[in-house]
Every structure is written in structure tokens, then in C-alpha cells.
Specification:
The protein has eleven helices and 17 strands. By secondary structure, it is of the alpha/beta class. Bound molecules: 5-beta-D-ribofuranosylnicotinamide adenine dinucleotide and zinc ion (2 copies).
């Protein structure tokens, strides 16, 4: 029996308020309105950004369905949708590509104005498609993937190769694309260069993969959790540093180890002090540092402007700089052609109802990516 045009009742992980746990609930998912599609989620990864939203470090409205790194199948489409049809395998896009805003028109930008980085939590018409126990439930980052079904705007989802394995290519919905693109597109790492990556989660390891593909000859991986070092080396790090082994800042340690020659540094943690230390770690004139970690919301950063005055470049990076609807299908094709391997990044695969265990693995530093399957 077709579900098109009808409300779907299904399971979703709802977070009812700040610092509240994930609660598996029966929710109602309304049919897609014009220029929207309803997606059956097949697999979804757990990212630090979802955790940040639960603790107030990333803006979100509650109650909310979090999750933004997924693979799914189009269940039905709303009026006016021309680029997708039921049955298409897709990746929802936390950074959409509307094609019309200044960020989409510029060849130098991937920042679509439709991105929901301020956590408004609704679709374009200002309303939500989810309800639970009679209350509206908000969307998150244009995607909301911790649910069996979600509704997203046509510009916030892209069709991919039907043969792509969902429990792997969901990582193209955030971690892999973000990290890999930070090295390739944002920093534009050059062959033979020296790179340093702060933070070895799913994002940091993907940065290492990008640095390696770009031909960096020295890739220094930094984390306070030494259990991450084996994975970092497996994906291309040439050496690892634990800040806990030193009393001085890592920028000083790197200067000594490299003879002051680090060209590219990346912050993939989301802490203000490591953003500054990563900036100070690259060469004072020709160095480039990329902030990839989510800045904690409502915080300000103080730094010595001399760090920039001498010539360093400090950049930010949203979703690896990719124009998502154009570029993601090609990245998935590269994966299918075995250009990169995601296996090192996926440490755990759990059924969706074990979502709390997935977050506990992340917070205990035991996982890189946990993928939840439906
Ligand atoms: P995850 O938490 O898995 O990894 C962070 C790593 O940093 C962990 O291995 C920690 O042990 C390590 N760490 C913590 N504190 C320190 C420290 N002081 N020094 C060195 N290492 C430390 O996170 P993730 O890989 O899922 O995400 C990383 C960041 O990237 C996080 O802030 C997330 O919100 C952000 C992000 C940004 C974007 C984007 O588009 N820019 C997309 N997705 C995620
Ligand atoms: Zn746009
Ligand atoms: Zn993410």
C-alpha cells in the first residue's frame, strides 16, 4: 500500500530539551509539501555536532530530531520536485545548494543561504513536518536523520549511485566530505608539504586522508586520546603527538620538530584554545590554518593579531567547501572506484534503537564513527 500523500507513523529519536537524553518515540511525519521530499533513512552516522546540539554548544530548537549524516531512499515527492523521484538513493545535505543565492552563484563559495546554522529548525515555509504526542518537533540542519522517515527540501538532498552501500556512504553526508574537502578545497594542500591535524575523530581522520591524497609528505596527528593514534597512522599520519606528554603549547613542539616549517594546520576539535594553537602552529608567513571544528556558540575568541600580521592565512570551512548537489555524487563515484576507503573511520555499526550507546561510545572516546542502521 502506497504511503504517498499520507502521514507516516514511525520511530524517531526525539530530544525533548537541552541536556535531555535521546528518547525513541513514535512520531508522525507529514507528507512533503511543494519542493520537498520525504526520505526513508537507511543508515545514519553519529557526529560530534549532534552531541553539541544536545548540550547547547550548537544552536537547535527543542524538541528536536537531530542527525545530519545519512543515506536514504526517496519515499515520495512534493509538488514541483523535478530532480528526484521515489526510489532514488540519496544523501540529505546539512549544507544545501539552492542554486540561486549569492553563495550558490559564486564559484568560490559553498555557503548556501538555506543552511540552518542558526538552528531555526523549520523548513522553508516556517513549519515542521514532525509531530510527537500532539506537539510539533523541530528539524535540525535541514536534515533530521535520527528517524525512520524525514522530510527535507529538494535543494537539501542529492541523488547518488544506487549501488553505493548505505552504511558506508552516509559518511559523505558530513565527516568524510568535511575533512577531505578541508584539505583539498579549503587549504589546498600541496605535494611535499607538512600538515598538522588537531583532533582525530571522524572529521580529523578524513582531513588526514585529504592531506595524503594531496601528496603531503609529513602529516602530524595530534590528540589527547592516544587510542586514536593507530587509526591516524592507518589513514596516513606519519607521526602522532599527545599534548598531555608536553608542558609547552603544541605550536612550540611542532616548531622544534619541523624546524618551523608547517604549511597547513587544521583544528577539528571545536575548542577555542586549540583554534589559536593551530593558527600559531603554521609558518608565520606562508602558513594556512583551517578552523573545521564547530566554534562553541555564544563564545568569543581573543588572539594576538601579530599571528596574522606576519602573513598567516586563517580560514574557516563549512562542509569541506563542496558545492553539495554538484560534488557529492562525484565523491561517491570516487569511493565506488576505490579512490578512498572509509572502513578505518567506521568503528561501530549499531541498530537505530541503540542510539544512546552510540553517543556514549563517542563521549568515552571509544569510537570514530558509529553508524546506526534501520
Ligand atoms: P570527535 O569528538 O569524534 O573528535 C574530536 C577529537 O578531538 C577526539 O578524538 C578528542 O579526543 C580530540 N580532542 C579533544 N580535546 C582535545 C585537545 N585539547 N587537544 C587535542 N585533541 C583533542 O569529533 P568529530 O570528528 O565528529 O568532529 C570534530 C569537530 O568538527 C567537531 O567540533 C564537530 O562539531 C566539527 C564539525 C564541523 C563541520 C564543518 O562543516 N566545519 C562538520 N562536521 C563536524
Ligand atoms: Zn543557495
Ligand atoms: Zn557533522
Amino acid at each position: 500500500m502506497s504511503t504517498s500523500g499520507k502521514v507516516i507513523k514511525c520511530k524517531a529519536a526525539v530530544v525533548w530539551g537541552l541536556k535531555q537524553p535521546f528518547s525513541i518515540e513514535e512520531v508522525e511525519v507529514a507528507p512533503p509539501k511543494a519542493y520537498e521530499v520525504r526520505v526513508k533513512i537507511l543508515a545514519t552516522g553519529i557526529c560530534r555536532t549532534d552531541n553539541n546540539a544536545t548540550i547547547g554548544a550548537m544552536p537547535a530548537k527543542f524538541p528536536v530530531i537531530l542527525g545530519h549524516e545519512a543515506t536514504g531512499i526517496i519515499e515520495s515527492i512534493g509538488e514541483g520536485v523535478t530532480t528526484l523521484k521515489p526510489g532514488d538513493k540519496v544523501i540529505p545535505l546539512p549544507v544545501p545548494q539552492c542554486g540561486f543565492c549569492p553563495g550558490c552563484i559564486s564559484p568560490h563559495s559553498n555557503y548556501c543561504e538555506k543552511i540552518d546554522i542558526i538552528g531555526r529548525g523549520v523548513l522553508a515555509d516556517g513549519t515542521s513536518r514532525f509531530t510527537c504526542k500532539g506537539k510539533p518537533v523541530y528539524h535540525f540542519m535541514n536534515t533530521s536523520t535520527f528517524t525512520e522517515y524525514t522530510v527535507v527540501e529538494e535543494c537539501a538532498v542529492v541523488k547518488i549511485d544506487a549501488a553505493a552501500p548505505p552504511e558506508k556512504v552516509c559518511l559523505f553526508g558530513c565527516a568524510f566530505s568535511t575533512g577531505y574537502g578541508a584539505a583539498i578545497n579549503t587549504a589546498k594542500v600541496t605535494p611535499g608539504s607538512t600538515c598538522a591535524v588537531f583532533g582525530l575523530g571522524g572529521v580529523g581522520l578524513s582531513i588526514i586522508i585529504g592531506c595524503k591524497v594531496a601528496g603531503a609528505s609529513r602529516i602530524i596527528a595530534i590528540d589527547i586520546n592516544p587510542r586514536k593514534f593507530e587509526k591516524a597512522k592507518a589513514v596516513g599520519a606519519t607521526e602522532c603527538i599527545n599534548p598531555k606528554d608536553y608542558t609547552k603549547p603544541i605550536s612550540e613542539v611542532l616548531k622544534e620538530k619541523t624546524g618551523n616549517s608547517v604549511e597547513y594546520t587544521f583544528e577539528a576539535i571545536g575548542h577555542l584554545d586549540t583554534m589559536i594553537d593551530a593558527l600559531a602552529s603554521c609558518h608565520k608567513n606562508y602558513g594556512t590554518s583551517v578552523v573545521v571544528g564547530d566554534p562553541p556558540s555564544s563564545t568569543m575568541l581573543t588572539y594576538d593579531p601579530m599571528l596574522l600580521f606576519t602573513g598567516r592565512t586563517w580560514k574557516g570551512c563549512i562542509f569541506g567547501g563542496w558545492k553539495t548537489r554538484n560534488d557529492l555524487p562525484k565523491l561517491v563515484s570516487d569511493f565506488m572506484a576505490k579512490k578512498f576507503d572509509l572502513d578505518q573511520l567506521i568503528t561501530h555499526v549499531l541498530p537505530f534503537n541503540k542510539i544512546k550507546d552510540g553517543f556514549s561510545l563517542l563521549n568515552k572516546g571509544e569510537s570514530i564513527r558509529t553508524v546506526l542502521t534501520f
